[in-house]
Amino acid sequence: MSSCILKSKSKIFFAFLFATMLSFGAYAQGESEQAEVATKGVEPGSTEGATVGGGADPAVIDAGAALFKNNCVVCHSAGTDVIVGPGLQGITERRSTPWLIKWIKNSQALVAAGDPEAVAVYNEYKKQAMPSFNFSDDEIKSILAYIEAGPASDVAASVPTTVGAEEGGPGNIGTDALGSIGSYLDIVLVVLIIVLIVLVVTLLLITSLLKNYLNKNRKLNEYDDEVVNQRFDFSKVYKSKAVRGLVTLIFVVVLLDLAWGTAMGIGIQQGYEPTQPIAFSHKLHAGEHQINCNYCHTTVYKSKSASIPSANICMNCHSQIQTESPEIQKIYRAIERNRPIEWVRVHNLPDLAYFNHSQHTQVGGIECQTCHGPIQEMDVVYQYSPLTMGWCIDCHRETPLNTEGNEYYDNLVELHEQSSQGAFTVSSNGGTECSKCHY
Ligand code: HEC
Ligand code: HEC
Ligand code: HEC
Ligand code: HEC
Ligand code: HEC
Ligand code: HEC
């Protein structure tokens, strides 16, 4: 009776152990998936000097591409697809340049003046007024040059023309390396597991062969018979002291690791994903429609804060697009009442810490995604990075400073190379001193 209770107790004990290990496995895997996302989220650098058609100056085409991506793609493709307005492929053959300049500056004026081409296209597209653009003639010509150059120039154009989005910006190094080590370990693990399974199967085959052989060809005495034909008794395995000791040790280590992780996680908002007052989607705007981050976060390359767009920025497009949508009506109501939209803040460092966007995006050349994750795939923004002091400092230790062509650093780098082997990182330049981040 007592042995029976003991048995069921150990069964519960082992079932519990097993469940804990499984959930830990899932947790670790979740982390490695995140690391993968981080690697994928970083956009590749632009291919400089990509070949462009049309013979126009590539710099002009690039400028045109940027203007087009920022202002026109939401309603037009450079190919033949109709989005809100017509596809613009071949537009310079259909219309004269002076007409196009007038149209883009103020299409409504042309329509009102009774220009036949303007009236025709306006009626064809159900009298949706295209917004006016306050561009110079040269800017409009650059857009036309981009449209003329066609899809071949899209290699260069598909990369947002943000400053500092250079090849393999320093921020990518850490995540790339981590990602590849991670996948390498995965492969080793899978191979090991396969080898183990093959071993177990082979051993089982051998024992059953031997058993058959002995039973058939030998006269076994009672003792041998018991050994050879014994049933495999699982309870013997888990009652053995060695196995119990080992399993308990693993269990304690796992528990400690989890407890440590939780303790370090106190006050961390990683994963925080509040519901916003308007169902604004970055996946739709920054992903599908490829609107540049700094079209809305206008100060992210210039100042400490990235800024959240005002309702007026939304109206650049939503005075025309989806005007009937209840979500868009909320923007109109905010403007009528002269109140800002009450977005819920996602990222928030405590007041004691100082963080500056332009220092990282403009000067450091770090991509938004390195810190914010794949924003262009998020319907609802969540906090991707832990934003702890350790997180800031780890990156400062690992990331080499871009000192190329900056005289200010020449002496410092030389001094550094005399005293140390490693790269000249942000921390070599004092980026881990308390006063840099604390007021
Ligand atoms: C809010 C949507 C919207 C935006 C943004 C927009 N357009 Fe348009 N565009 C239209 C619509 C709709 C038409 C069709 C004419 C009409 O209804 O006014 C049109 C027509 C045109 C035409 C005339 C096409 C033809 O076949 O004659 C040109 C050229 C043009 N747009 C260029 C541009 C350029 C360049 C930009 C960016 C600087 C731009 N548009 C931005 C909506 C837009
Ligand atoms: C069309 C405008 C628009 C574009 C383009 C845009 N955003 Fe946003 N972004 C917003 C608005 C509005 C919010 C506030 C609502 C929310 O959190 O979803 C926001 C919030 C954010 C936040 C969270 C801010 C907080 O509260 O802590 C981050 C981070 C962010 N954006 C990054 C980006 C990045 C990176 C890109 C480019 C890939 C981008 N945004 C493109 C409008 C935009
Ligand atoms: C550069 C142009 C542009 C700007 C600026 C812009 N949007 Fe949009 N928005 C779009 C386009 C294009 C769509 C998709 C329309 C479609 O798919 O029918 C869209 C769709 C939406 C939708 C979904 C509407 C629905 O019911 O399907 C919401 C909500 C929205 N935008 C909110 C905002 C908010 C809030 C802002 C300001 C922070 C903003 N947008 C700024 C171009 C823009
Ligand atoms: C080195 C990491 C890092 C990079 C790169 C970065 N951010 Fe941030 N971002 C942060 C941190 C940290 C905060 C929280 C700041 C605070 O609370 O003071 C933040 C906050 C924000 C906010 C909320 C408003 C604000 O200013 O506090 C927006 C919007 C935002 N980031 C957009 C962007 C965009 C767009 C880019 C790329 C152009 C970008 N960020 C690049 C770390 C980064
Ligand atoms: C992904 C990497 C990365 C992360 C994460 C990061 N930084 Fe940085 N940081 C940099 C780089 C690179 C520079 C150097 C920019 C330059 O001057 O070229 C820098 C510079 C700085 C500087 C200026 C240092 C000096 O010597 O003048 C401060 C202050 C700073 N970071 C604060 C922070 C804080 C606070 C956080 C965390 C909330 C943070 N950083 C997170 C990469 C990072
Ligand atoms: C690269 C930037 C950076 C540097 C360098 C840095 N810190 Fe911090 N520190 C932070 C950030 C960001 C936070 C807020 C983190 C959080 O809320 O978890 C923080 C938080 C703290 C806190 C408050 C902890 C808490 O739980 O509220 C203390 C204390 C602190 N730092 C002390 C220091 C000291 C001492 C040094 C110098 C040895 C230093 N820090 C250097 C970025 C930095």
From TrEMBL:
Residues 59-151 form the Cytochrome c domain. Coiled coil: none annotated. GO terms for molecular function: electron transfer activity; heme binding; metal ion binding. Keywords: Electron transport, Heme, Iron, Membrane, Metal-binding, Signal, Transmembrane, Transmembrane helix, Transport. It holds the Pfam family Cytochrom_C. InterPro entries: Cyt_c-like_dom, Cyt_c-like_dom_sf, Cyt_c_III_dom, Multihaem_cyt_sf. Residues 1-28 form the signal peptide. The keyword Cell inner membrane does not apply. The chain crosses the membrane at residues 187-210, 246-268. PANTHER family: CYTOCHROME C7-LIKE DOMAIN-CONTAINING PROTEIN (PTHR39425:SF1), LIPOPROTEIN CYTOCHROME C (PTHR39425). This is Quinol:cytochrome c oxidoreductase pentaheme cytochrome subunit. It comes from Pontibacter akesuensis.
